[in-house]
Amino acid sequence: MRLLKLSAVILSLTVSTGIVGQKKYKSKSGFLGSISEVGVLVGFNASFFGEEVGPYGDGQSDQYDNHNRLGLNSSVFIRNELKKRLFVQLELGWNGRGGAYKTKNFDYTLINSNGSFDDALEFKNYAFDYLECYIALVKKHEYAIQEEISVYTGIGLVPGVLLRQRIVEDNNYNSKSSSEPYSSARPVVLSIAGDLVFASNRKVFPFFMFLRPSLTPMSPFKKGLSDGNNYKTNLFGFTFGFGFHVKGV
Predict the structure, then answer these.
(1) Strand (E) positions, the chain?
(2) N or C terminus: which one in the chain shows less Cβ crowding within 10 Å?
(3) Would you list the DSSP string of 95-154?
């Protein structure tokens, strides 16, 4: 039930990777309508697992806690006009996703300068980097903010191909950290995403800001993993970033 509620929230925050130009370009006929704009965007993606992924073998599941992984997102896109104020957006780019969990190490105790005690914590970060293709329907709304900013919303599917996977381990009681290859992530995933875009209507450097929540219903891990961890989890993400319009086509 919690997953259904979260999914509904994500779908309601619909999205459009939005490019901003208010120029009118000459319509070109084609299967997807007229190609109107080309652009780029860059942002940060915070993603996390829907379920705790940490091990439960010692019966102390309350000692484990999920954390988000912060990754980079960059892509290029085109927007094709289907009809007035309705577009299909095709986007291709890199997205760093994954998640992390922390656990207590009972072999250590931290003593602060004031004599108080802190838990010794260990962190395991699953880092998955994907080549993603975002295919979305985008709506430009009739209203604007003080005639300076246009608002776009959209929703679409995001197939992703795994390019790199690794595990980064760290802790808060010594300076040791490690990063090593990982081989148990799915090679292909499918996500649902949406955008809320605020786009400048200025002709000089027409930039935009976008918010993009996403949900990967399937587990990013391969089936059949049995090393004591809970890998049957979905993956949530939230991207915030900026972009600008390159040119009309």
Answers:
(1) 34-49, 65-67, 69-83, 86-111, 117-145, 149-171, 178-181, 188-200, 207-216, 235-247
(2) N
(3) EEEEEEEEEEEEEEEEE-TTS-EEEEEEEEEEEEEEEEEEEEEEEEEEEEETTTEEEEEE
Look up the pTM and report it.
0.76
Which pLDDT score, from 0 to 100, does residue 173 have?
Answer: 77
Mean of pLDDT values over 114-142: 88
Q: Tokens 């976008």 correspond to what residue?
A: 210
Q: Are 209 and 16 in contact (CB under 8 A)?
A: no
Residue 239: predicted pLDDT? 95
- For the chain, what is the radius of gyration of the CA atoms? 21
- What are phi and psi for residue 191, nearest 5 degrees? -120, 160
Count of CA atoms in the C-beta half-sphere (13 A) of 240: 2
Query: Which residue, chain included where needed, has tokens 């962190």?
Result: 123
pLDDT: is 103 or 15 the higher one?
103
216 neighbors 234 (Cβ within 8 angstroms): yes
Distance from first CA to last CA of the chain, Å, rounded? 45
Angle, vertex CA 44, rays to CA 128 and CA 161, nearest 5: 30
